[in-house]
Amino acid sequence: MACDLVGFFRPRLSGCVSKHDQSGADKALPAIVLAVVAAVGSVGKVRLPLVRLLLWAEPGDCHEAALQRRAITQAGATLHPDAVLVVDAGFGVATLLTGGVPRFVARVARNFTARRNVLPAYTGRGRCPVYGERVRPLPRTYKGRTMAASPPDAPAQWVRAGRMIQAQLWDDLVLSPAKPGAPAFRCAVIHDPRYQEPLVLVTTLPVSALVG
User: Fold this and answer.
1) Are residues 136 and 177 in the same domain?
2) Of the ranges 21-30, 71-80, 197-206, which one carries the lowest mean pLDDT score?
3) Which pLDDT score, from 0 to 100, does residue 211 have?
């Protein structure tokens, strides 16, 4: 089940208060925004969506966040036992975890960080830790200083159509602001030579890095 926001751009529509990001313009433009939830299937080799939910913003609500939350909540409530909700990076992981979605796969930003779902050992100095160790799936540069990626729990590699694909998996994580015991998930980073940027995914499914 795929979920996304779709904007029908109306730059000349008088009184249009809602906006949606437009990659060509590199900014948000006036648009009628809809949330679409669709089951993805196929006829032969052609992939086709079957629309299950179609939502629009409440009167007077010009922010997409409220529409996203409604879409996630309703999609989670109607998700079939053998279905998984798939969303892009525009949907926050916190919204998915608190929105009652039992199974999801979400793409997240390259600078995504999380925490271990256990407390680190006390070093004997200072306060006892209340947060798990921070996990950084990819290295990042901040103020000229490079912060290394966290070692993965389970690396993997496989060959697909002659390409060597590599992946790393971090298991039993919680959100960065959360303490151990919060809703847990796993993170997979997939490096495909066809693309310049790796794919960073967060999921509640018990899958390996290869399946991710």
Assistant:
1) yes
2) 21-30
3) 46
Q: Contact 101/80 with Cβ under 8 angstroms?
A: no
Q: Is 147 helix (H, G, I), strand (E, B) or coil?
A: strand
> 175 and 114: one domain?
yes
Residue 99 Rama label (left phi>0; alpha psi -120 to 50; beta): alpha
Give the pairing type, strands 46-56 and 199-203: unpaired
pLDDT band at 72 (very low <50, low <70, confident <90, very high): very high
Distance, in Å, from the CA atom of 184 to the CA atom of 202, rounded to the nearest integer, reads 10
Residues sharing a CB contact under 8 Å with residue 23, sequence separation 6 or more, in sequence order:
none
pLDDT of res. 62:
65
> What is the predicted pLDDT for the residue at 212?
41
Range of the structural domain that residue 190 is part of: 108-120+131-212
Length of the chain: 212
Do residues 168 and 151 touch, judged by C-beta distance below 8 A? no
Please indicate, yes or no, whether residues 66 and 116 belong to a single structural domain of this protein. no
What type of residue sits at position 91? F
Contact 202, 110 (CB under 8 A): no
- Does the predicted TM-score (pTM) go above 0.90? no
Are residues 149 and 79 part of one domain? no
Q: What is the mean pLDDT of residues 117-139?
A: 90
Structural domain total, the chain: 2
3-state secondary structure of 130: coil
- Whether 97 is covered by a domain: the verdict is no
Give backbone dihedrals phi and psi of 202, rounded to 5 degrees, phi first: -125, 135
- Give yes or no: residues 113 and 74 share one domain: no
